[in-house]
Design a protein that fits this description.
single chain, alpha+beta, flat
C-alpha cells in the first residue's frame, strides 16, 4: 500500500521540523563547557582580496607543533587605499605580528606568510615553555 504524496510530504516536513527543534535545544555533542570557545582555530577578519589571500596562504602553510592547538589565532586587517593593508596576527587576543602588504607585494606574499608561520610557531613554543615553567609571558625575565 502506497502513501498518499501529500501525506508523505507532510510526514517529511514534520520530521525535518522536529529535528530542527531538537538540535536547536539540545545542540551537538561537543567537548568542553557550555559557552567555551573552540581552541586551535585560525579566525579570519579581513576585508580585501589581499587579506583573503594572506589568510588562505597562512592556513595552507599552518601546521601547529604538538601542544600548540590550544591557542586561538586571529588574522585581521586594517585596509588603506594609500598604504595597502596592515595584517595583524593575534594569539588569544594579543597582537604578536604585523605585516604591511599590498598589491605590489605580489609573489613575495608567499615568503612573508612562510616567515610568519615560522615566527608564530617559535613564539607559541616559547610561550608554552614559559607556561610549563610556571611563568606567564609578562612576568618572565628579559634575560639580563
Amino acid at each position: 500500500m502506497r502513501c498518499h504524496p501529500v501525506r508523505s510530504g507532510l510526514k517529511r516536513a514534520r520530521l525535518v521540523t522536529f529535528l530542527a527543534v531538537l538540535f536547536t535545544f539540545v545542540g551537538p555533542a561537543m567537548p568542553g563547557r557550555a559557552g567555551e570557545e573552540f581552541d586551535g582555530l585560525v579566525v579570519k577578519q579581513v576585508q580585501t582580496r589581499i587579506g583573503h589571500e594572506f589568510h588562505r596562504l597562512f592556513v595552507n602553510n599552518w601546521e601547529p607543533l604538538p601542544g600548540m592547538e590550544k591557542f586561538r589565532i586571529r588574522i585581521s586587517e586594517r585596509a588603506s587605499a594609500r598604504w595597502g593593508s596592515l595584517v595583524l596576527i593575534s594569539v588569544d587576543e594579543r597582537i604578536v605580528q604585523r605585516y604591511q602588504v599590498g598589491v605590489r607585494t605580489g609573489g613575495a606574499m608567499e615568503d612573508i606568510v612562510r616567515q610568519s608561520v615560522r615566527d608564530l610557531n617559535i613564539f607559541l613554543w616559547q610561550l608554552t615553555s614559559l607556561e610549563g615553567e610556571g611563568l606567564e609571558s609578562d612576568l618572565a625575565g628579559d634575560g639580563i
